[in-house]
Amino acid sequence: VPLRDMEFVQYHPTCLPGSGILMTEGCRGEGGILVNSDGYRYLQDYGLGPLDPWPRPKAMELGPRDRLSQAFWHEKQKGRTIDTPHGAAVHLDLRHLGEKKIHERLPLIAEAAETFAGVDPVKSPIPVCPAVHYTMGGILTDGQCETPIKGLFAAGECSSVGIHGANRLGSNSLAELLVFGRVAGEGAAREAERLGRTPPSPAVQVQAEEAERRILSLLDPARSQQPQAERPAVIRDEMRASMEDGVGIYRDEKGMQATCDKLAELRERYRHVKLDDYSRAFNTDWLTTLELGYSLEVAQAMAHSALERRESRGAHQRLDGYTERDDRQFMKHSLAHYQGDSAPSISLQPVVITKSLPRARVYGGAGQKADMS
Hints:
single chain, Flavocytochrome C3, Chain A, domain 1, Methane Monooxygenase Hydroxylase, Chain G, domain 1, 11 helices, globular
């Protein structure tokens, strides 16, 4: 079963550095503002303004997640971000809302900021930065959530049923789960009823036994005696850094190719990974090591799909001569096909347009002009 559209990854623009904890859009919906190291509301420089009479609850800070994340990237390039122990950040300023409103409307935000960043948002701005939040792509399914394998269904963020396109809107994931979770469950129930109790085929049994053997082999203490043995955390950290560098908010061919090469190297090194805990009971070391192996394969699907998409569309933005959308060549889904120990092969699938054609995305003053035209 191929993975579809894995190059489209959504960043959330306001996370606590080093923690991955979201400072929800609710902060900005209540009137919070984003400022750089100069205290300047920088979003007005990136087509998300102009400034409105302030303070105003819903202003340019509630622009699309990808545009806010891209603006952060530009501010970082210009040296106008704030240094934190966990990297560059900007400030989410809630102080003008006052203590009463912050604790009434945003109590969990205040608690998280104090617990994980040591910041009291009543007195100081909160450091925030973009972080990977959602994968628009996933396991290829049809509109009934069934994959190309008869009887295998997928729903939620793991799937690609096709409703998010190249750039999901905030909060749509919950609606997707409610709708397609039911569709998938009812479809799976009908299929199970149709098949009844049937023994697995010999081929499936062989696959299951091979998977069991591979998983249990990680618990062999002899692995730690290999000269190439290394802990999974080392490989995971290098994977994360390479993905952020090469397949992050903005991309180019050189960076994406470097990431593809790095991921191939890391998958080879993963073959010699060692655990510190070789027990079978509540072994989180074993679990995270298994997840790392799958994460490397998913990362390859993302990086190679991105490299093959020679345009900019939605959450996939390139800087190397492919800065515009190319509907003639790339109004297509990418399909990443698993190739075992090798990198995935990438093919393209036509997009079916049912009603709305793609349009240019414009905001601020340009958006108002587009609405009037």
